[in-house]
Write a structure and sequence with these properties.
With 154 residues, this protein is mostly helical. Helix content is 69%, strand content 0%.
Length: 154
């Protein structure tokens, strides 16, 4: 499996984690009243989720594990096929529920956001590292232009 996309998405996740955490940690006591910082943190959590789902979709496609019908199923299929620890998967699914929720930014579920920042951001990092580690163990599929052993063109 070519890991370039996984490495790129891991970088995206790392940047989003840092940005969301930085927005909160500037001053946790004023975070509740600062809509701009809440929005920045929320958007970075959502971006991290989207990058994680894209990583999962890539793995599912290249490992031949079938397409997922929704974001939650991406995580479930990775769990079922040994790419992801089930406990980590369940935590990520809860974060995904926050990211997919239909809510008004002005009335966002602030307690959920703060919980994700305090406890859930590291789940994204653990997820990315788990997929990278497992992908490194998975042999790359030969490309179409690489002759296979015994190919008469050799």
């Amino acid at each position: 499996m070519d890991n370039d996309l996984l490495v790129s998405k891991t970088g995206t996740i790392e940047r989003c984690i840092k940005r969301a955490r930085d927005e909160y940690e500037k001053d946790p006591t004023t975070f509740v009243g600062d809509i701009t910082r809440q929005d920045a943190a929320t958007l970075n959590v959502i971006r991290a989720w989207e990058a994680a789902v894209e990583m999962g979709d890539y793995v599912l496609a290249h490992a031949g594990l079938g397409p997922a019908h929704d974001e939650r199923e991406v995580i479930s299929l990775l769990e079922e096929n040994g790419w992801l620890d089930p406990a980590l998967g369940e935590d990520l699914k809860r974060t995904g529920e926050f990211c997919r929720a239909d809510w008004d930014y002005q009335a966002s579920p602030l307690p959920a956001l703060v919980t994700i920042i305090k406890r859930g951001l590291d789940d994204f990092d653990a997820y990315a590292r788990a997929l990278l580690a497992r992908a490194a163990e998975t042999p790359a599929a030969p490309s179409d232009d690489t002759p296979s052993p015994g190919d008469p063109a050799i």
